[in-house]
Design a protein that fits this description.
Largest sheet: 4 strands, mixed
Structural class: alpha/beta
Number of helices: 6
Strand content: 15-25%
Radius of gyration: 21 Å
Oligomer: single chain
Number of strands: 11
Order of helices and strands: EEEHEHEEEHEHEHEHE
C-alpha cells in the first residue's frame, strides 16, 4: 500500500472535446456510506459510478472500511458514454493508497469490474492487475449463479438470477476487526443491501467455516423486485461460489426464505401455485429445483414427474447443507 493522500484526481478524454475530471477525496467514515458520488445534473451517472467503484474494489485482496471516499465528476458525460469509468476506479485507488497518486488520463469501461476486466478506450489495458504488474485479478475470483422466480402476477413473470462472487481476503485488512463483513451489493438500495448481508452472515454462521475470509460481491439480474423469496437462491449461489455445494448440470432454481439462517432452516414463501407454474414453464434439462419442505404437500399434481420428463430434478428441503 502507498501513503494515501487526502485527495486525488484522474482525467478521461471526452468525445465532445477536452477532458472529464474525476476527483476523489477521503475522510473518516464515521458511520457513513463507504462510497459517495456526485455528477452535476446526472444522478443516474453518479449511481453508476458508485456501482463501478464498489465492484472494482472486489478485486483487491485487502478490505479497509475506516474511510469514506467521495468522488465527483466536474461535468456530466455525453449520453451513453462510459469511458470515464476507469478514471473513477483509478481515482478511488489513488486516494486510498492502493495506487501511487499521480496525474493520469484514463479511458475504459467494463461490464465485469468485479473481475477486474477493462474494455473500451484502454486498448492495452485488459485487466486491473496490469496497473501494478500483477496477474489477472479475475483468476482469484470464484462466481456462481442461482435463479429464483420473479412473480408479480403479470405477463412479464420470469426467472431472475442472483450471482455471488467471492475472493479470499488477505490477512491484515481493516474493517473486519470491527465486525464488518466486506459484502458489496451495488445494485440494491440500503435496505436491500442490509437484507442480503444479514442472509449471508446467518447462512455462513451455520456453515461454520464461511466467515471472516471473503470479499463478496452480490449482483442481481433484475434489481427492482420486492419480497424475500430470493433468499434461498442467494444462499445457494454463495455456497456454490465458496465450494460448499456441488454445481448442477444446468441451473439451480430455488425459492425460500428463513427467519433463522444461522440454524440453516429453510422456510416457506408465498405464491406456491404461480411460482411452481413459472418454474415448470422455464425449466430445462439439467436444472435442479429447490423448494421449501413446507410446500411439498401442496405441490401441483404431476409437477415432479413433468420436471423429470424435461430432464430437471426437484427437491423439497428444510435445511441447507444437506442439499
Amino acid at each position: 500500500m502507498n501513503a494515501a493522500p487526502d485527495s486525488a484526481s484522474c482525467r478521461s478524454r471526452d468525445p465532445r472535446g477536452g477532458y472529464l475530471t474525476v476527483t476523489a477525496t477521503r475522510r473518516p467514515r464515521a458511520g457513513r456510506a463507504d462510497v459517495k458520488c456526485s455528477v452535476p445534473g446526472a444522478p443516474e451517472v453518479a449511481e453508476r459510478m458508485q456501482q463501478v467503484v464498489r465492484l472494482a474494489r472486489h478485486t483487491e485482496a485487502r478490505h479497509d472500511s475506516r474511510d469514506q471516499v467521495v468522488l465527483s465528476l466536474d461535468r456530466a458525460p455525453a449520453e451513453g458514454d462510459r469511458d470515464w469509468e476507469l478514471a473513477a476506479v483509478l481515482a478511488d485507488r489513488m486516494v486510498r493508497g492502493v495506487l501511487p497518486a499521480r496525474t493520469e488520463v484514463a479511458n475504459g469501461w467494463s461490464d465485469a469490474w468485479h473481475l477486474g476486466r477493462i474494455d473500451g478506450g484502454a486498448q492495452d489495458l485488459t485487466h486491473l492487475g496490469l496497473l501494478t504488474g500483477q496477474p489477472d485479478p479475475g483468476a482469484g475470483v470464484a462466481s456462481a449463479r442461482a435463479w429464483f422466480p420473479l412473480h408479480s402476477g403479470g405477463a412479464h413473470d420470469s426467472l431472475g438470477w442472483v450471482e455471488v462472487s467471492v475472493r479470499p481476503l488477505a490477512q491484515g485488512g481493516e474493517g473486519e476487526a470491527a465486525g464488518e463483513d466486506p459484502i458489496a451489493v451495488p445494485e440494491l438500495d440500503a435496505a436491500g443491501q442490509a437484507q442480503v448481508r444479514a442472509v449471508l452472515a446467518g447462512s455462513r454462521h451455520f456453515d461454520g467455516r464461511g466467515q471472516g475470509g471473503w470479499r463478496t460481491t452480490v449482483r442481481f439480474g433484475e434489481a427492482r423486485f420486492q419480497g424475500d423469496s430470493y433468499e434461498l437462491a442467494l444462499v445457494m449461489a454463495d455456497r456454490m461460489a465458496r465450494g460448499r455445494e456441488f454445481l448442477a448440470r444446468g441451473r439451480v432454481i430455488a425459492t425460500g426464505r428463513s427467519s433463522s439462517w444461522h440454524a440453516g432452516k429453510v422456510e416457506s414463501v408465498e405464491a406456491l401455485g404461480p411460482k411452481c407454474a413459472l418454474i415448470l414453464r422455464e425449466a430445462q434439462a439439467g436444472d435442479r429445483v429447490l423448494l421449501p419442505k413446507e410446500w411439498e404437500a401442496g405441490l401441483p399434481a404431476g409437477l415432479r414427474e413433468e420436471l423429470r420428463a424435461r430432464g430437471a430434478s426437484l427437491a423439497c428441503v428444510e435445511r441447507i447443507g444437506i442439499i
